[in-house]
Amino acid sequence: MSSPTQRDACWTAVGLLDSSGRNDLVQSELTALQNAGSNESVASGETLFAQGDRVTGIACLIQGTVAIHRSHGKEHSTLLRLLDSGSMLGLDGVFGSGTHANSAVALTECSVCWIEPEALCELMAKSPAVIRKVLGRLAFDLEASDEARVNVVHLQVRARLAAMLLALRDRHGTVDESGNLVIRLPLSRRDMASAIGTRPESLSRAIRALENDRVASFHGKRVVIRDLDDLLDEIEL
């Protein structure tokens, strides 16, 4: 069982509470939030839930990065998106079929708060403020999905790779002593290719092209970018 402080951190991370711990919820709603949910640490590589499983909890991601996969056939899987702290996983299943359409795997060590679907639905029935927050999360996820589809249709592989690096910059990027942006990739090359809708060999060609033009250099899962403007220019070409 998690403490009230831990649970408040959970609801603050996903936007149901602001940094003061209150937002526009009344006291009874705050109490309901504090009584719901339990915290769990998830190791890198562990599965939060699997495709086809019945939805038994909504995962609120406090810290870490999670990959959402969709399996098709026995040996093929597509990386749909990466989720970072502040995300709520499983909402589509709760308000849809009741089963998970995708699998969620921790790419880094994660801190997760689980809430029973019934508890969230009961709170939504009493609180328009919570309904707005949850609908906002669903709308944000839908917008991100639409943007990914547009990128696959209109951007070349090289530009899609640049867009992915920019998306990873905030959570996985640091600046070294020379002023270079250093991004530590939380996923494999195969997953990178899947995420941007291309083949691994096409991704390899895009990586070589960025390196040849000195936009970025790749060293395993470490990417060094000397000039951020050069990376931004890739998307605007």
Description:
The chain is 44% helix and 23% strand. The chain starts with a helix and ends with a helix. The strands form three sheets. The chain has a four-stranded antiparallel beta sheet. The chain is α+β, with helices and mostly antiparallel strands and 237 residues long. The relative contact order is 0.13. It has helices spanning 4-13, 27-35, 91-94, 117-126, 128-154, 157-172, 189-195, 200-212, 228-236; strands at 38-42, 47-49, 58-63, 65-71, 77-84, 88-89, 103-106, 110-115, 173-175, 181-184, 217-219, 222-225. Strand 11 (217-219) and strand 12 form a beta hairpin. Helix 6 (157-172) packs across helix 9 and helix 7 crosses helix 8.
Describe the structure concisely for a colleague.
The chain is 44% helix and 23% strand. The chain has helices spanning 4-13, 27-35, 91-94, 117-126, 128-154, 157-172, 189-195, 200-212, 228-236; strands at residues 38-42, 47-49, 58-63, 65-71, 77-84, 88-89, 103-106, 110-115, 173-175, 181-184, 217-219, 222-225. A four-stranded antiparallel beta sheet has the order 1-8-3-6.
Overall mean pLDDT: 84
Terminal Cα separation, in Å? 52 Å
Estimate what percentage of residues fall within beta strands: 15-25%
User: How does the helix and strand content classify structurally?
Assistant: alpha+beta
Radius of gyration: 19 Å
General form:
elongated
Helix percentage range: 40-55%
Biggest sheet strand order reads: 1-8-3-6
Please give the count of helices.
9
Q: Would you list the SSEs in sequence order as H and E?
A: HHEEEEEEHEEHHHEEHHEEH
Reported for the largest beta sheet, the result is: 4 strands, antiparallel
SS elements, strand count: 12
Instruction: Provide the low-confidence segments as ranges.
Output: none
